[in-house]
Amino acid sequence: MAPAGNGAAGAPAALLAQVVRGGLVESEHLGHLVVLDPTGAVRLALGDPDKVVYARSSLKPLQAVAMLRSGLDLRGAQLALAAASHNAEPGHLEEVRAILAGAGLDESALQNTPTLPLDPAAALDWQRAGRGPEPVAQNCSGKHAAMLATCVAAGWDTGAYRELDHPLQRAVRQTLAELTGGPAGDPTVDGCGAPLFSTSLSGLARAFATIARAPQAAPGTPEARVAAAMSAHPWHVAGTGRDATDVMRAAPGLVAKDGAEGVYAAALPDGSALAFKVADGSARPRPAILRAALRVAGADQMAGVDVGALDRAGRVDVLGHGRPVGAVVAAFGGADRA
What domain of life is recorded for the organism (predicted)? Predict the structure, then answer.
């Protein structure tokens, strides 16, 4: 099936979103986007649907699959945290510490980058308690705790779990290549300190499609377990006020994960899927682009979906003197202009 839209391999970045203040377009965000139908055919492509990117934290559900395949035994909220970029609210940190304790470890084993909590209120409380940047407070601490627990389960060295040639990272790379259908290449280091591999946007969408439809197509598999945990515990995947949490709450069975530098991937239970990359790396337009792409993917016709909640999650206001005077709007998918 030929791509819809003007997307083509090697195509330049296309217009994905506009910043509208008053009646004028103030700024524009270009990028690359692909939406797949349940058969894997391209429903919409803007820019280059095969653009190779670092998917950053959007890779976490795939990494969680690799960890389960390697012997990790987490379920529920703790498995959701393995695929999370959490706010470091108290409930997040409680479960991170429980993952570590279950493996006979504590916070000293974490090797991710020390930061303050991502959530402003949590960060303020953290500092009021006299604490500074710590690994457990970083948004990737759930993934790192799960990586350590995987090493304990598999009998692997926990001190070198971030090394590219460690058995854990080799398993992650192999799983990424399998799920995306292409090479997991260009190894580098992610912001949290773990190895990071590149993939194409279309490959990322295919991987999310496999994960999201697994509860029905392949129950009991690692893919199904990750999908079930994320959709059942969306707050643990992100947190209060986060769009990934809000859209998964609004659409039963949806699997969605944001990533740094303007990346997002999501899939519906029927295997419809999307992935995009904002070319300038901005996070600002991501909710609006995600909402429009979910509309193209068919989320609004899903049983049980709260369309109003999806609309609210995708709303990005442009403020003037603290009040909305416009919005960031997607440039496709029937999005309403501010």
Answer: Bacteria
Residues with pLDDT less than 70, the chain: 1-5, 334-338
Structural tokens at position 210 = 């496999």
Phi-psi sector, 321: left (phi>0), alpha (psi -120 to 50), beta: left
Count of the separate structural domains present in the chain:
1
The Cα–Cα gap between 34 and 45 comes to 4
What pLDDT does residue 2 have? Answer: 37
**Structural domain containing residue 125:** 52-316+324-330
Q: In the structure encoding, which two tokens stand for residue 302, read together?
A: 């899903």
Q: Render the burial of 84-98: b for 16+ CB within 10 Å, e for the rest.
A: bbbbbbebbbebbbe
Pair of tokens at residue 205: 């969408």
What's 115's DSSP letter? B
Domain-embedded: residue 10: no
Report helix, strand or coil for 69.
helix
Q: Which residues contact 183 (CB under 8 A, 6 or more apart)?
A: 177, 199
State how far the alpha carbon of 85 is from the alpha carbons of 140, 173, 230, 338, in Å: 5, 20, 12, 30
Q: Is residue 20 part of a domain?
A: no
289/295 Cα distance (integer angstroms): 10
108 assigned to some structural domain? yes
Strand duo 263-267 + 316-320: pairing: unpaired
Residue 8 lies in a domain: no
H-assigned helices in the chain: 60-69, 76-82, 90-102, 120-128, 141-154, 167-180, 201-217, 222-232, 234-237, 243-250, 286-297, 307-313
Rounded CA separation 34/273 (Å): 8
Give the pLDDT score at 310.
98
Residue 267: Cβ within 10 Å count = 30
Residue 9 has what pLDDT?
84
